[in-house]
Design a protein that fits this description.
Blueprint: E1 6-10, H1 14-26, E2 30-34, H2 37-46, E3 51-54, H3 63-71, E4 77-82, H4 87-95, E5 100-103, H5 108-126, H6 130-134, E6 136-139, E7 142-145, E8 150-153, E9 158-160, H7 163-173, H8 182-186, H9 195-208, E10 218-221, E11 225-228, E12 232-235
Parallel strand pairs: 1-2, 1-3, 3-4, 4-5
Antiparallel strand pairs: 6-7, 6-12, 7-8, 8-9, 10-11
Helix pairs in contact: 1-5, 2-3, 4-9, 7-9
């Protein structure tokens, strides 16, 4: 793991910011904390962090608005840390592109472990070089570039995936016409609940399927997992 990764912590509770920052600092991370979404947004425009940990109950805005803004910046990890533990809030956060969702109260060491895992996946993407960095996967009417997390349709329109969405699609593309279970797709990631796979799959389908409710590219194999039903061609 690269040292001095920059992490922003956005929470209106000063003791939470201090707790999270102190724990992350112990593991070599550089941190900055903000008690409003507006201040965090200004800092993000000046310098992009590697990871942003966002509370949803901010005093000046809904944290989901900040998550939307962060999703416009490629390569930033997004972790929601919130007292909202309802399924709709979790699902909405993931649908907007957050990579992880942790509820309060939380165990600081677990938060660090999940931050480590997320940043490690981002680093693997950053470190793609040589032939693997230039390889793109073509399937159905789409081309996926793992280096930029971008999906491009043959007509020219493009979609940028979140880190978690791109990793999920990449796993399917590397095993076409094979059934992958949820455990295989999760890998080492410590997701807060199994529904996260379904939410991200739904987001990908909305981008690539003509009819997301009746998908023809990514099939659900009930009781087993998911399967990419299209031929995949890898090229430079």
């Amino acid at each position: 793991m690269k040292q001095n990764r920059l992490i922003y912590v956005v929470d209106d509770e000063a003791d939470i910011c201090t707790l999270v920052c102190d724990e992350l600092n112990r593991f070599g991370y550089e941190t900055r904390s903000f008690n409003t979404g507006g201040r965090a947004a200004q800092a993000i425009r000046r310098r992009l962090p590697d990871l942003c940990i966002v509370d949803l109950g901010l005093p000046d805005m809904d944290g989901l608005g900040l998550v939307r803004e962060l999703c416009a910046h490629q390569g930033i990890g997004i972790m929601i840390l919130s007292g909202r533990d309802s399924t709709p809030d979790r699902v909405l956060g993931l649908e907007l592109g957050a990579d992880d969702y942790i509820t309060k109260p939380f165990e600081p060491r677990e938060l660090v472990a999940r931050a480590n895992s997320l940043l490690r996946r981002l680093e693997q993407i950053d470190n793609q070089d040589g032939e693997s960095a230039r390889r793109r996967a073509s399937f159905a009417d789409w081309t996926f570039d793992p280096g930029t997390l971008t999906l491009t349709r043959s007509s020219g329109e493009s979609e940028v995936l979140s880190t978690a969405e791109a990793e999920l699609l990449d796993s399917l593309l590397r095993a076409p016409r094979q059934i992958l279970s949820r455990d295989q797709l999760l890998g080492e990631r410590a997701d807060p609940f199994d529904r996260s796979i379904d939410v991200r799959m739904s987001r990908i389908r909305k981008k690539i399927e003509t009819d997301p409710k009746n998908p023809s590219i990514i099939k659900t194999i009930y009781g087993a997992g998911y399967m990419l039903a299209a031929e995949v061609r890898w090229s430079q």
